[in-house]
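Appendix C reproduces, verbatim, an entry submitted by the partner laboratory led by Prof. M.T., so that reviewers can inspect both the input and the predicted structure.
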Amino acid sequence: MENLKLQSEKINTAVSTIIGLGGTGILQCVQCGACSAVCPGVRAGFPVLCRLLIRKILDGQLDEIIEDSSSWGCQACNRCTEVCPQGVRPQEVVFAFRRYQAGELAVSTSTTTSQMNMYEVGHAVFTDAQELRQQVGLPAKAPTSAYNETAQKEIQTLLNNSSMAELGLF
């Protein structure tokens, strides 16, 4: 019975931590997998994103996954949120988990480039696709922080005032 109580406390701590950091819809997840099906990060091979990340948090496994770099592979494309039938907003859960990792200074060295990209252009993963966009009839510059100096400065201010700044990456 004591083991069950400890596990319950661990789960409550994990869930309340993520909710407190912005992943407010986590308890609505029914593990349908719609988010993972459309996630470029999952397709690229980051194993602990979307459904699996949520599952591990709901199982109270924050300590076990704190150093997993998958969350930093999220491109913030918001596809997961668009398709979620339960309104979980998986991207917000991923970002809440990133905040948890940053607060614990548990950022994998494999995420250094993505953190520097986030600081410089507002995207963890960024490729300049202006020519390709034009070829398919879209404006060359996507409406993102990559082409918005004000947005980039706001992101830099946020990062400079976060625990991420303590890592000295930017």
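Residues 2-20 form the longest helix (19 residues). Additional entries are available on request from the coordinating office.
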